[in-house]
Design a protein that fits this description.
Elements: H1 25-40, E1 60-66, E2 79-84, H2 89-92, E3 97-100, E4 113-117, H3 118-124, E5 134-138, E6 152-162, E7 177-180
Parallel strand pairs: 2-7, 4-6
Antiparallel strand pairs: 1-2, 1-5, 3-6, 4-7, 5-6
């Protein structure tokens, strides 16, 4: 089965910080940055990124509305998979963009922008160019893990369309997804 992303030379690592050991948000971020730098310095490592892999890793879902409008009958039940990624995510996993651009570099302040999969773009804006369109993600009525960052009505502008990837869903329903480089406010 073709996945649509690099799988042979990629290592996925999940980190969990135990409660009661003083790992507040700032310390977690510092530990992740140090690990990121140490892995990048290893011989043979070409790149390191942060983001959930297309094949799962605790898939997140959010209800989507378009252009900041209130849900209508035709889009009130649209639910997509989403994740937050670093700007080099698509290059690291060799996921080509079919339209638009990738995220800005990490040293630039992230915008409220998103890159959609081809399937998500076709579902949300059939027959139209989705670049520049806006969508609102709301994960409040979806299942999420405790203390997980979720979008609560965050608005994103579409800057790119990535080729579909296959993930963990047998029926391929996880091809329709949104990736952003900005965490919810």
């Amino acid at each position: 089965m073709k996945t649509g992303y690099e799988t042979k030379r990629v290592l996925s690592l999940d980190l969990y910080f135990p409660e009661g050991f003083g790992y507040n948000r700032e310390k977690q971020v510092a530990e992740i940055r140090e690990l990121h730098d140490r892995i990048r310095a290893l011989p043979g490592v070409k790149n390191v990124t942060v983001g959930r892999p297309p094949d799962g890793g605790g898939m997140r879902t959010a209800t989507v509305t378009l252009d900041g409008k209130k849900p209508l009958a035709d889009n009130s039940q649209r639910t997509l998979y989403y994740t937050y990624v670093q700007p080099n995510y698509f290059q690291t996993l060799d996921i080509p963009l079919s339209l638009g651009r990738v995220f800005s570099q990490p040293h630039v302040q992230p915008d409220t922008v998103a890159i959609l999969s081809e399937s998500a773009a076709k579902e949300l804006w059939p027959g139209k160019n989705p670049i520049g369109q806006k969508l609102v993600l709301d994960g409040s009525n979806q299942f999420h893990a405790k203390d997980e960052l979720i979008p609560l009505g965050a608005s994103y502008q579409v800057i790119g369309i990535a080729q579909d990837t296959r993930g963990g869903q047998i029926d391929g329903s996880d091809r329709a997804n949104v990736r952003s480089n900005r965490l919810p406010d």
